[in-house]
Design brief:
globular, four-stranded antiparallel β-sheet, Immunoglobulin-like, single chain, about 45% strand, alpha+beta
Amino acid sequence: MRGSVKGARLALCVMFSMSILLSIAGEAYAASEVRLLHAVPGGPTAKLQISGGDASPVGLAGVEFGLATDYGKAPAGEATLTLVAGGKQLGRSNETLEDGARYTVVAVPEGDGTTLRLYSDGRPVPGRARWRIVHAAPEFDEAEFMLDDRVVKRLELGEASDYSTAQPGPHTVAARRPGEEQPLVERDDVSLVAGTAQTAYLVGSGGERTRFTILEDAATAPTVAPDTGLGGLGGDGGGLPWSAALLAGALAGTLGGAVYLRAQARSGRRGG
C-alpha cells in the first residue's frame, strides 16, 4: 500500500513539473524579436508599440532619425504595430510575426504621413559575412547600389535585396542614380564580419543628409562561453534564448528528482 502511495506521489510530481516546464517552453519559443529603425527625415523622436493576442503590449525605446532600437521580444502571431511620438499616432500596421523570427520595422515618410515597413531579418552562417541592402530614402525612386566598385543591385524605394555573401573585412557601400557614374551616397567604413548577417539601410533626404545606417541582424553564438556562463544561449546572437537553457536545467532537475523518488520507493519496499 505504501509503495502505491509513493508511486502516485511520484507520478503527480512528474506531471506537475512537466506542466511547469511546458509553460516555460511556450514562453521561450512563442515569441519573435522586433526592432525599429527611424527613417522619417525631420520626424520627432518616436516609439514603437506592439500589441497582439492576450499578451501585454510591448513598447520599444524612443529613437531619433537614422537610429535603431535594440531588438525587443514580441508575441508571435497577429500583431498591431503603432508608431507614436508625443502621445500622437504617426503610423500603424497589422502584421503577422512568426515564432522565433527577427524583424526590423522601418518608419518611412509616405505622402503627408508615415508608413511602417516590416522586413524579415536573416540568420548568420558560421564563417561567412552575409549582408543585404534596404532602400528607405524617398529622395530616390530607384537607385543602384554598389559594394566597392561593383554594382550589386538596383532597388526601388521600399525594396530589399536578398542576402548575399561578401569577403569579411572593410568595404565601401555606395548608391547612385541609375545611369550615372558618380555615387550620391558613399560610406567607406563598412566592416562585414564573418559569422554575422548585416543590413545597409539607405535613409535620408527631406532635410536630412542621405546616408547608410548599418545594422547587425544576427551573429553566430561565440565558441567560448561568455561571462554569463550561458555559452551562446544568451539570445543576442541568434542562438537559443536564455530561457531554453533554464528549460534544459529544469528538465534535468525534474528527471533527477523522479529517479530519486523512485529509488526511495523501492528502498521502502525492501525495508518493509
